[in-house]
Amino acid sequence: MKDIIEILKFLLGFASWIVFLFLSGNTLTSLERALVTSFIISLILGYRQLRNGFILEWGSVIFFAWCIIMVNFLQNVTIAKNMGIIANGFLASIIWMTILIGKPFTLQYARQDLPKERWNDPGLVQSCRFMAIVWGLLMMVSTFVACFKVMRPGLYPEIVYSSISIGTIMGGTLFTQYYKKYKRASRTEST
Fold it and tell me: How much of the chain exceeds pLDDT 90, in percent?
């Protein structure tokens, strides 16, 4: 049961993106609705993380606000048509930025459940950096798949592209949970 709660808490950080993936659809109207819904979800579910300066959550809010302006208000069709590339690329960029500035997004989430004296533990920081790198690579795969979809429209059914996007999120989530278990077991054995 603890594992399920950990998975759900972790996925909460990606809730707005997951909702966006499922709601964006193939029409401008569905995209507009998905952007507004995802923006609201980012604000409501991410309120605590926003107050605590979580980079992933702030990036999500900024992204959805910018997209609402560009797509919903300015009716920028180019952005709407390339939303898969833009969304996946932006999410990958946020993740890579957190790694490059030395504050991997996974470390921010890990610190929520740890006492302050463990926050700067070198093993924890290194593990969180590694997990963030894996997430960054997975989001780059999604970005490349979105690019391929635009360059070769109609080559594969939409379900193939959606399945890959969902698969990267689920794969990243499962990896995160198993890696955390592995590191906890290693730490327990060494003490």
Answer: 66
